[in-house]
Amino acid sequence: MNSPVFVKSDHEAYAVFVTKLGGPEVLKPAPIKIPDALDHHIVIEHTAVAVNFVDVYLRAGQKHSHNPEPPFITGVSAVGKVLKMGKGVEGFKVGDRVTYTNSGVGTYCTHVCVKEDRIVHVPDDVSDERAAAGFVRALTAQYLLKQMRTLHPGDRILVHAAAGGVGQILVQWALRLGLKIIATVGSDEKIPLVKSLGIEHVINYSKDDFAEQVKLITSGQGVKVVYESVGKDTFTRSLACLEPKGLLVNYGTSSGQVEGFALQDLHANSLWICRPTLKTYVAKRTDLLLMAKEAFEILGDPKIKLAIEAVLPLTQAAKSHEMLESRSTRGAIVLIP
Ligand SMILES: NC(=O)c1ccc[n+]([C@@H]2O[C@H](COP(=O)([O-])OP(=O)(O)OC[C@H]3O[C@@H](n4cnc5c(N)ncnc54)[C@H](OP(=O)(O)O)[C@@H]3O)[C@@H](O)[C@H]2O)c1
User: Fold this and answer.
1) pLDDT band per the 50, 70, 90 thresholds, residue 12
2) Rounded to the nearest 5°, which phi and psi values hold at 190?
3) What is the structure's pLDDT at 1?
4) Measured over all CA atoms, what is the biggest interatomic distance in the chain, rounded to whole angstroms?
5) Which end of the chain is more exposed for a tag (fewer CB within 10 A), N or C?
């Protein structure tokens, strides 16, 4: 596991391990055995591995819904082909293009054995790279927009980090629902990308007080929902953006965990707050299938843009984490085994 001289062609199967909690440098490739197919499980040969921000939390040891002990394989989603099937598997055949998430196995590897009820087919009109870049993000956008609060055309929302992977899908899907969107980004360079998605109001929250800007744009009324994935740096000011009875959804902590929150801060305007995770929303297979259908309708539509910032060899997983943490990415990164 500590071998820095791993050469991909030496091994049929390999994984990138988090050798200890820490920076991107703790990610190291090492050979693995192709797993056997357990009953009701499928062995998948990966063709494209997703890089999601949660992979960074797990590698760094930031408190999450689950925190594996090193050494472990990080990652929560990947795309591949069915290689082998265990007894009792139904609805799949060898060679099928499939994806999965929240299956309990790490995904930065060439081969995995995944329980059949976590796996869905990838439609023909979605490439492996786009599915890897978008599956978790579109599922997330689905529950954020459709399962947290009833939204009607004309309702106003604020979306933080809109140039990011989730952010891009979220704002485009919200536009389709007829919502009025205000978006934030961390640098002026990211503004044109978000505007090109059809968003008129884009605030650089590194430079401007976004709560003041939201007040100006909404004539003091505020927004119905804030989709807040940045955490520490934006949480408190996000509360100030809400209309009375508005909802703050803190679904990520890219800048760090929220600290010092007082419940009483919700009182004056009867505000709501929620800290959801996709894991809960896809826990039942029936929900996963319904959400995946909608997610793939979005990803299968060529009008929905999802920028892929970089496609890197899986052996360079550490570089992908450096890029994500440097805030330089506009869209997704995909790793190819
Ligand atoms: N709860 C769930 O179910 C769920 C599911 C999927 C994803 N998520 C969350 O959604 C968010 C977006 O995920 P993603 O994978 O698509 O990532 P991403 O948005 O592509 O990247 C994260 C973005 O966060 C912003 N950011 C602000 N402060 C940062 C900091 N100190 N360090 C790094 N980035 C910072 C950056 O955009 P700016 O430079 O524009 O600020 C960065 O590009 C993440 O917080 C993730 O954990 C949650």
Assistant:
1) confident
2) -85, -10
3) 47
4) 63
5) N
The model carries a pTM of 0.97
In whole numbers, what is the pLDDT of the chain averaged over residues? 96
Pick the CATH number of 8-134+282-336 from 3.40.50.1450, 3.30.9.10, 2.40.50.140, 3.90.180.10: 3.90.180.10
Q: State how far the alpha carbon of 32 is from the alpha carbons of 12, 58, 107, in Å.
A: 8, 21, 13
CB 277 within 8 A of CB 249: no
Pairing of strands 201-204, 242-250: unpaired
Q: How far is CA 158 from the centre of its chain?
A: 18
Q: Which 3 state secondary structure label does DSSP give 261?
A: coil
Q: How far is the CA of 83 from the centre of ligand 1 (A)?
A: 33
- CATH assignment, 149-275: 3.40.50.720
Q: What percent of the chain has pLDDT over 90?
A: 95
Phi-psi category of residue 47: left, alpha or beta, with phi > 0 → left and psi -120 to 50 → alpha: alpha
Given this model, what pLDDT does residue 7 score? 66
- CB contact set of 104 (below 8 Å; sequence gap of 6+): 115
Q: How far is the CA of 252 from the centre of ligand 1 (A)?
A: 7
What pLDDT shows up at residue 2? 45
**What is the full DSSP assignment across 219-239?**
TT--EEEEEE-S-TTTHHHHH
**CA-CA distance, 1 to 21, in Å (whole number)?**
14
Nearest CA residue ID for atom 13, ligand 1? 53
**253 C-alpha to center of ligand 1: Å?**
7
**Which protein residues are within 6 Å of ligand 1, measured from CB?**
52-54, 136-137, 140, 161, 163-167, 185-187, 190, 229-230, 233, 251-252, 254-255, 276-278, 324-325, 327, 329
**Could you tell me the distance, in angstroms and rounded to a whole number, from the CA of residue 261 to the centre of ligand 1?**
20
For residue range 20-47, list pLDDT tens digits in order.
Answer: 999 999 999 999 999 999 999 999 999 9
